[in-house]
Specification:
The model has no long low-confidence stretch (mean pLDDT 95). By secondary structure, this protein is α/β, with parallel strands linked by helices. It has 2 domains: 20-286, Rossmann fold; 300-405, Four Helix Bundle (Hemerythrin (Met), subunit A), CATH 1.20.120.640. The radius of gyration is 22 Å and the shape is globular. The chain has helices spanning 53-71, 87-96, 100-118, 129-145, 174-183, 224-235, 250-265, 297-302, 307-315, 327-344, 353-364, 369-386, 393-405; strands at 20-23, 28-31, 37-42, 75-82, 125-128, 149-152, 155-158, 200-204, 220-222, 240-246, 271-277, 280-282, 285-286, 323-324.
Length: 409
């Protein structure tokens, strides 16, 4: 599977700062020191509907992570998956009378278009669950053969008790885990499981549903968590720098994935930091496909909204915050974009060196994009009120906003 084209990232004078970011597993800020190549895995979409603002906010956050790393002169090895076979996708295809493959391909193509328009840097490896199945099957067989998994009526489950670190990603107690498991794709009430929290690794073929050759597992399809584990281990290995996604993935998805990988390899941790973006709401509820309360990036683009304004609307909120999408949020972003473009269109302005360092410091401090935007606002206000004698300043600001915030002025 191919990703989307990369926009050019301008080189800036000087060097950025190492990223301090909130780690869900420890509950506090950690300073990341990736070495010359930073490794990041971000969980991708289940492609049964277009890219909504919740998706865009999450991927915008991890685009900032990449940009901070690039500014420190590191290379970035970014991997993202596409869950192109799963129950929600199959259910939507049945509801709409569509072929599930056609639905997945169409929505994935639209997602690529949205990511391109928002100028989000693409992953080096963009892998679908279906194409990963040949690598998933051996992992499930290995877990079963080592006693970390077991069969139940043809399905194969992972035993969470096989990982002594289970629970350390989310920090939740058992009662909370059971509730979230039931809400987020698990089956804690199924009779015969060794532990109600045990997640499915391989689902035996069901009538009328797609299935693949699973070797000694029989025909079927992979569970949700093992998909990302197989892709991450293949392309990044253990101990990569950041596992990212929305806050609703901390449990069960990232918790289970970490345990799968740690049981498989005997190594710890799966990722050095678990980073989670907040939820975007609409009309008082989390924006979600199941509720249907969605604002789509593609629809805003069709309505003539500049993608740079959409991106500024996202950047106006701290990535870990839960926030509400409103018409006022977008209007403020459109107005800000206009002020910034007017400011950098002038031939000279206030010195930009201090501004570049302010943006760098804000982003290195747990991706504080609102503070970075406020810094640019102050420079633009100074430009409007007093101008300046630095002929190169507007160009420097334009390049810095592009390189560090992904906004083309």
């Amino acid at each position: 599977m191919h990703a989307w084209p990369a926009s050019e990232v301008p080189a800036l004078p000087g060097k950025g700062r190492d990223l301090r970011i909130h780690d869900t597993a420890t509950g506090g800020l950690v300073t990341l020191d990736p070495g010359p190549v930073a490794r990041i895995y971000v969980c991708g979409i289940t492609p049964y509907d277009a890219t909504h603002m919740g998706h865009a906010a999450t991927y915008n956050a991890f685009d900032l992570v990449q940009r901070v790393w690039l500014d420190t002169k590191r290379q970035v090895h970014y991997v993202q998956n596409v869950t192109d076979v799963d129950d929600p996708l199959l259910e939507r295809a049945t509801r709409d009378g569509k072929d599930w493959v056609e639905l997945a391909e169409g929505e994935t193509a639209l997602f690529r278009e949205d990511m391109t328009a928002l100028r989000l840097l693409p992953p080096k490896h963009y892998i679908g669950a279906v194409e990963a199945i040949p690598g998933i099957v051996p992992l499930v067989e290995r877990l079963r053969d080592m006693g970390a998994a077991y069969e139940l009526e043809g399905d194969v489950y992972f035993s969470v008790e096989s990982d002594t670190h289970f629970g350390e990603v989310s920090g939740l107690d058992t009662a909370a885990m059971k509730l979230l498991s039931a809400e987020r794709g698990g089956d804690p009430e199924r009779v015969g499981k060794k532990n109600p929290l045990d997640p499915m690794l391989w689902m035996a073929a069901r009538e009328g549903e797609p299935s693949w050759d699973g070797g000694s597992l029989g025909r079927g399809r992979p569970g949700w968590h093992i998909e990302c584990v197989a892709i991450a281990l293949d392309h990044l290995g253990m101990g990569f720098d950041v596992q990212g996604g929305g806050s609703d993935l901390a449990f069960p998805h990232h918790e289970m994935g970490a345990s799968h990988a740690q049981a498989l390899t005997g190594e710890y941790p799966f990722a050095k930091a678990y980073v989670h973006a907040g939820m975007v709401g609409l009309d008082g509820a989390k924006m979600s496909k199941s509720k249907g309360n969605l604002v789509f990036v593609s629809q805003l683009r069709r309505d003539g909204v500049d993608p740079a304004a959409i991106r500024l609307a996202l950047l106006a909120h701290h990535y870990r915050a839960d926030w509400e999408w409103t018409d006022a949020v977008l209007a403020e972003a459109v107005e800000r974009l206009g002020r910034w473009r007017a400011a950098v269109s002038r031939p000279d302005g206030p010195s930009a060196e201090a501004l570049v360092e302010e943006i760098r410091e804000a982003l290195a401090n747990d991706l504080d994009a609102p503070a970075a935007l406020a810094a640019v606002d102050r420079w633009a206000a100074g430009q409007a009120s007093a101008g300046g004698a630095d002929e190169g300043a507007p160009g420097v600001v334009s390049r810095a906003v592009d390189a560090l915030l992904g906004v083309a002025l």
